[in-house]
Each structure stands twice: as C-alpha cells, then as structure tokens.
Automatic annotation (TrEMBL):
Keywords, in A-Z order: Hydrolase
Record-linked Gene3D superfamilies: alpha/beta hydrolase
MF-aspect GO terms: carboxymethylenebutenolidase activity
Keyword check for Transferase: no
UniProt-recorded name of the protein: Carboxymethylenebutenolidase
Ranges where the Dienelactone hydrolase domain occurs: 14-230
Enzyme Commission (EC) number: 3.1.1.45
Key word Hydrolase present: yes
Organism field: Phenylobacterium koreense
InterPro entries: AB_hydrolase_fold (IPR029058), Dienelactn_hydro (IPR002925), Dienelactone_hydrolase-like (IPR051049)
Amino acid sequence: MGETTTIKTDDGQFSAYVARPSRSKAPAIVVIQEIFGVNAVMRGVCDELAAAGFLAVCPDLFWRIEPGIDITDQSEAEWKKAFELYNAFDVDAGVKDIAATIDHVRGLPESTGKVGAVGFCLGGLLAFLTATRTDSDASVSFYGVGIEKNLVEADKLGHPLLMHIAEQDQFVPKEAQALIISQLKNHPQIAIHTYPGRDHAFARIGGENYDASDAKLANGRTLAFFKQHLEA
C-alpha cells in the first residue's frame, strides 16, 4: 500500500503516489500516467515495481488543469473527460514536472540516486521526452502517442531508452510506427520491441485491449532493463 507525497516546483506544487520497496535503499522509477490520471492502474504499476525492489513514484501531471484526476477507461463519460484533459495538457510543462519529480526522488535518503522513468500512452510520449530532455538514467516508453512528431529529439538522448510498440495501435498509424522504427532502430541507446496483433494499451490490466501474455513479456523486458541500468 502506497502513500502520497508533495513535490514543489517554481510553478507550484503537486502530489505524487509513492510505493516503497522492502529494502531501505533502492533505485527509483518515476511512473508516468496515462490520460486517466493517477488511477488504480498507475498505482498498481507502482506497487508492482516496489515489490520488485524499486522506489516507485507517480506524479499528478494533470495538476495544472485539475488536481487529483483518478478515472478509468470503463465508461464513455470517463473517456470524454480523459480526452478533454489530454487536449488541454501542456506537454512541455509536463516534462518539466517529471524532471522536478526526478530531482525530488534522487535526493531522497532512501534513494540510491539512480532514477528511471516508465510511461504509458500519453506517458509513453512523455517517457521518450524524459529520455531526451532530463537526466533520467533509463527510460521506458509503452505505446507512446505522437513520438513520430518528436524524433529529432533523439539527437539529445544520453541514456538508455526501451520502447514497446503495438503493431495494431489505433492511435499510432502504421506510417508513424515505420517512421519511428526506421529513424531510431540504429540508435546506440535505443532498443525497440514490437508486438504483432496488439492494439494500444495492451498492458493495461482490465482494459479492452489487455493481453496477458504480451503484457507479461513487455513488463519482464522492462524490469530486466531497469535492473541492468539502475542497479549497476
């Protein structure tokens, strides 16, 4: 069971969900939300990372619009609300908030100082930008939306990035996927895995497109990646 903490920035302060591992000192992972806020799915991701030995923190990135968003993907009204939030969201400000979260976590006494990031959907784009714009030690992007519009940012990448791409992603057209892969596949810091037959959010437990087998595969690759780059 996690807890809530407050992260302060020059623009104001926002809350974050924190899940702690059993060990007293651990590397940390910033969990970057989908368009549904810091909800049960994101808290569950944090709890699973904590069980695997990481200090996991999920910041409320919608705080500038409406603090405390916690909705699901189970109703039409919630989807409408989620897309309203998505359309109002300032990506650049969000990355700055992630950077502030990384700085906050890195300075905690229970942190080893190594901090990674993992994001899903909107968070998948933000994880890519976190890898290029912050000092995250290792980042993972799950089915990020809009990455193809930001590929030039890869030139700034200084730390490892792992990407999971759903081949039937309804929000990332085949042309966009092809562009992402062709532009990034030979980058020395980037590893890309594609998942045939999978649609967007195939790793979201309880979601319409959830696939237990490929979710387990992607999550296993993610955990191995973090162990390699954050525990060395």
